[in-house]
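Trying the structure run again after the queue cleared.
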Amino acid sequence: MSTSFKRIPLVKNSHYQRDGLKSYGHALVKFNIGPTFSGPFFSGIKAEHQGKFAGMIGGKTRMKQHVLMKRHEPSHAPSSGTGSEAPSGQVSASDIQNDSEYLCPVAIGTPAQTLMLDFDTGSSDLWLWSSEIPSHQLSQYKKGHTVFDSSKSSTFKNMSGSSWQIQYGDSSTASGTVGTDKVDVGGLVIKDQAIELAKTISTQFLQGAGDGLLGLAWSNINTVQPKPVQTPVDNMITQDDIPKSQELFTAYLGSWRDANEPDKGQSFYTFGFIDQDVLTQAKATASDIHYTPVDNSQGFWQFPSTKASINGTSIALSNNTAIADTGTTLALVSDQVVEAVYKAIPGAKYDSTQQGYVFPTKTTADKLPIVQVDIGGKLFTIQKEDLAFADAGNGMTYGGIQSRGDMDLDILGDVFLKGVYAIFDHGNKRFGALQRVEQVQNLAPAPSS
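Done. Tokens:
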């Protein structure tokens, strides 16, 4: 068993730019959500033709339901002449925010090639930018990226006959081949870990800042065919890289707003242990962590969330569930809860141009509501400072809590997770949370980057 148990620090994505509508668009695309509030994004029907010669000759046409589309306003700028302008109804790469606010260095292969990956508890694939991506795409988008080259790793083994494909709600895709190699996550070395090498990749993925993604959800939603592969956490467990008594990982997400807090706004993961320094700082013990059973039938870290509270007023949410998702920045909840949150903020309003609620940037902490969400029978508070997500212009701020649309569960992303120490207990199939309390609610205007 490895004895290297330490915090794995996350690196702030220097290319990340806060944009409320684009981050909301990312969540809609990732989870194939149909918006229930008016705005640029909407669910539509798209005709797809399958045939010979680039799909245009012969074959058949089928109607694809529930494709995310966008109403494009008439352009006020002349055409670039490149043909890259998105026609009305089509979601372009520039419409979607790459939601990787944090990235983590992961060493793969022998000798090691270090890639910056997005750790995502809402998906289960470990996919990488690879040298198999067409050269014309690499030449255009490679700058700032590390591209994994399997031919340069002596420990890489091809998994013949296996392939993978991710497809999002806007029809963007990434797909390719599969192999195994050594993967080093903060000193924990996983042998023969399946890695998915991108070969065909949409612009939406190419414009992301990271070099790929490391999925931390359950393996039943892994996309490898003909048989799903084990995730890195699965293999950490089966290879005894982490103790049987601690078959878990934890996430501590910080914020630029907390530079003057005791934790200095740091962000990190741990694998195989619960960080005692976090408990000490919170004046808590392990017994103070609240756990709730997880339903992993859909592959997510999903748990009961049957109520919410706004300034002490409880909202019953019969049979409601939520997922903890580090791969989504916003917190998306039912329309009923969203409306109650912003009704409690003076001057807040729904802005259809941004498809979300906004409120005055000058709002002080005492004017913001105490918003609590239920995690398996216990209420946890979202930090007031995280209610302010991004500059919305005209003296307004885009709210960190927005509508989950027609999704039948809440998506508790970083806006929620920054307020707790999150424990993803794989071995006991449960999710744990410890409330974090900031000394000061820093409501300085959110930076654009």
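The radius of gyration is 22 Å. Worth checking whether this holds up in the mutant runs.
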